[in-house]
């Protein structure tokens, strides 16, 4: 018997820098598994440029997982290397796969400045050079003195990068491309070319870089035992590199290594094109679906719910779509802020958790809350939806996307999951009742709304149909439950 897969992003941006996350993950492993979680995406485990205060995206040393005194601390924001490895093992013992967040396109916090010839470029048009070549002071020398060559003696210098956004000689922040280098043409076309994102931008045309990243990935997998990757910012990395990197690491480790890439683009055509370029070696987060949720939540009833899956990755390529509601980049105050309004969260999570297609990911901030922004989260509701995915959401699916304010679907259940099957109906407007087919096997049986929004039971008719109700601007999930008393 195979249960539905469910990922959890186990962090949000404003977690306290107290080094406790790895221990919390280990302690919660059994409870997460019982709630239906089958994999977790953990934040970057290596040392960032700001030491224990760094969320992990300002990459300094990929080999320092909280083991060496570098950047002012031994541990990372989330804990020590030993605690990380123990957390991975604890989660896996509870049959939860662990995906490691990996940032490969830049480095920050160099150990020394190099004098490098470079040209200034227009940040809004990366092909437009401003002025002539000049020598700048570039933070591109990485020697990792605190690690003292343990695990790797690879040193980084300006030849391993193609650009940077700071001249130490003049203390000027601009976009600089190093002389003799070119932006990689396989990157996203935003701003003309979106190879450069931040810090010292890695030159993926350098063969030494590919070899070093492969060596590191094999070491990381053997050291930690992780089951796969979440690759950050792949729109800034050549598609050919990602394809060859994943193929080579899988070959050397003999591991499947599920990988989800973050290609932040709301145009599903860009995502499907990228999947073709990497031969579908990775799945992608469904950014267009997130934006559909965001716009619907803001519209307060003026959005056509029949169109909620239009132009999304899960509708075009469901086997490669990681569906999500929010994440650490879309939460309040972040660079991609587009936080789904609270009233719509249960509807959005029902749409990713209780349907057949996609690999859903629950956001830590939605689940536990975000104290920094006084957002309490919806753990009690999401626990119910997650458990429904684990126990009930199986079998043939019937869609009723036939009303702009009220949509629904049913799952007939299967023989492998006892008493499985459910009906979902939701509304961003007036609410109401929707007649839907759930299967003849349920004829004469009673269903109730497990979310408690509808206060009465219904009876499935002889043809396998039920009249499923939903409140205004809400969601109801109906499951088989025989009443103890009378039925309306």
Report on the structure:
There is one protein chain. The longest helix is centred in the middle third of the chain and has 18 residues. The protein is 24% helix and 24% strand. With 488 residues, it is an alpha/beta fold. Strands 1-2-5-12-13-14-15-16 form an eight-stranded parallel beta barrel. Strands 6-11-9-10-7-8 form a six-stranded antiparallel sheet, with no helix packed on it. Helix 8 links the parallel strand 15 and strand 16.
Q: Note the overall shape.
A: elongated
* Strand runs, count: 24
Largest sheet: 8 strands, parallel, barrel
| Helical content (DSSP H or I, runs of 4+) | 10-25%
Radius of gyration: 25 Å
The computed structural class is: alpha/beta
Low-confidence stretches: none
Per DSSP, the total helix count is: 10
Q: Which percent band covers the strand fraction? A: 15-25%
Overview in brief:
The protein has 488 residues and is α/β, with parallel strands linked by helices. It contains ten helices and 24 strands. Strands 1-2-5-12-13-14-15-16 form an eight-stranded parallel β-barrel. A six-stranded antiparallel beta sheet has the order 6-11-9-10-7-8, with no helix packed on it. The protein has a six-stranded antiparallel beta sheet with strand order 17-18-19-24-21-22.
Task: From the structure above, extract its key features.
single chain; 8-stranded parallel beta barrel; 6-stranded antiparallel β-sheet; elongated; 10 helices; 24% helix; alpha/beta; 488 residues
């Amino acid at each position: 018997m195979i249960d539905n897969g469910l990922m959890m992003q186990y962090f949000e941006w404003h977690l306290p820098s107290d080094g406790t996350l790895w221990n919390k993950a280990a302690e919660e492993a059994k409870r997460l598994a019982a709630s239906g979680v089958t994999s977790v995406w953990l934040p970057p485990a290596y040392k960032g440029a700001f030491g224990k205060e760094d969320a992990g995206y300002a990459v300094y040393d990929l080999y320092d997982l909280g083991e060496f005194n570098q950047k002012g601390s031994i541990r990372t924001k989330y804990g020590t290397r030993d605690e990380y490895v123990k957390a991975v093992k604890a989660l896996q013992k509870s049959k939860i796969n662990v995906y490691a967040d990996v940032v490969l396109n830049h480095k920050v916090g160099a150990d020394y400045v190099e004098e490098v010839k470079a040209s200034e470029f227009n940040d809004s048009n990366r092909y437009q050079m401003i002025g002539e070549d000049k020598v700048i002071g570039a933070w591109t020398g990485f020697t990792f003195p605190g690690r003292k060559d343990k695990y790797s003696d690879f040193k980084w210098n300006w030849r391993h990068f193609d650009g940077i956004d700071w001249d130490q000689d003049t203390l000027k922040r601009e976009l600089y491309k190093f002389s003799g280098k070119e932006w990689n043409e396989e990157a996203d076309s935003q701003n003309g070319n979106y190879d450069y994102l931040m810090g010292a931008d890695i030159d993926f045309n350098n063969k030494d870089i590919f070899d070093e990243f492969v060596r590191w990935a094999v070491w990381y997998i053997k050291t930690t035992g992780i089951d796969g990757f979440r690759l950050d910012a792949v729109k800034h990395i050549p598609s050919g590199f990602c394809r060859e990197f994943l193929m080579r690491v899988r070959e050397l480790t003999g591991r499947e290594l599920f990988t989800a890439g973050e290609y932040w683009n709301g145009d599903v055509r860009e995502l499907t094109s990228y999947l073709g370029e990497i031969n579908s070696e990775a799945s992608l987060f469904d950014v267009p679906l997130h934006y559909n949720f965001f716009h619907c939540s803001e519209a307060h009833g003026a959005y056509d719910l029949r169109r909620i899956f239009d132009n999304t990755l899960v509708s075009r390529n469901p086997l490669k779509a990681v569906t999500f509601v929010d994440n650490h980049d879309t939460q309040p105050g972040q660079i991609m802020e587009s936080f789904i309004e609270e009233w719509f969260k249960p509807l959005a999570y029902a749409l990713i958790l209780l349907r057949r297609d996609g690999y859903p990911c629950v956001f830590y901030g939605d689940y536990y809350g975000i104290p920094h922004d006084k957002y309490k989260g919806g753990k009690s509701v999401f626990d119910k939806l997650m458990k429904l995915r684990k126990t009930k959401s199986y079998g043939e699916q019937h869609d009723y996307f036939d009303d702009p304010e009220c949509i629904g679907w049913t799952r007939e259940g299967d023989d492998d999951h006892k008493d499985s099957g459910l009906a979902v109906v939701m509304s961003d407007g007036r609410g109401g009742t929707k007649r839907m087919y759930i299967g003849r096997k349920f004829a004469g049986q009673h269903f109730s709304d497990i979310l408690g929004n509808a206060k009465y039971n219904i009876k499935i008719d002889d043809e396998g149909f039920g009249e499923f109700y939903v409140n205004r601007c809400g969601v109801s999930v109906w499951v088989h439950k025989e009443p103890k008393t009378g039925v309306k």
